[in-house]
Amino acid sequence: NPPSEWIIKSVPELRIVDDALWQAVKTRQTATRVTLQREGMVGARRPRYLFSKLTKCAACGGGFILSSRDNLRCFNNIARGTCANSRTIRRQELEARVLRAMEERFFEPIAFDDFCRAFTEELTQLRLTHQAGLQSARRELERIKREIQQVVDAIKAGFGHAELKAEMDKLHARKETLLALVSSGDDLPVGLHPSMANVYRTKVHQLAAGLEQENQEAREGTREALRSFIDRIEIPAGNGLLAVTGNIDAMLRAAAGQSISARQSVGYVGCGGGI
Length: 275
What we know:
alpha+beta; 275 residues; 58% helix; four-stranded mixed sheet; disordered C terminus; 7 strands; 9 helices
């Protein structure tokens, strides 16, 4: 039958998976396609180890890769001879130290209290500026509406010049911009609470324990969650401390249980420490 004669009926009770899982899969597929386009097949592969692709040489910025079964070394040092960092570190040692840094060094109580205070102060200032901008936009919107009516009245009176039509188009464009701004309302992030630091550390501890699960899919989900907290791990020459830089946006979301775009809205780009 042609499509116009099809009879379509929703039967949600026959679904194999629920909406949440379906959307999660579609989101993952979209992210994979984007990665394929940006980095190719190699970049889109699932990381083999917990912190694969996140380990970088502090001297040259190149990748720290497996030079043998369990030892990590600078790629530019062993393959190109362009870097003097000849340090070797076992993968298991690196993973243990980074996990310990995530539990102990990220969101230290005193430092996080200072962060919360600075964040709240800046967020308050942003809210004041945002509200002032909304009030100004509302006033301008009323003025634009009056000017549009004046142009309409002029056109009705017989003054249909090209200049008036161009002015009308300009006023309507500005009106749409102002309407979008006014309708956006207050979309700034919510404030932070010092207890979030404890929540974050508890979640990291639970995730780290989850790496020992027998179920492979559960382990993969745990690994991805832990990896999302890390932007990069820099390995210096000699016996220097590893520099672990965290993704504060992901950590705040995990601690708050909701979307908080601190990095985009306020400008904090990360946190971390050496271990």
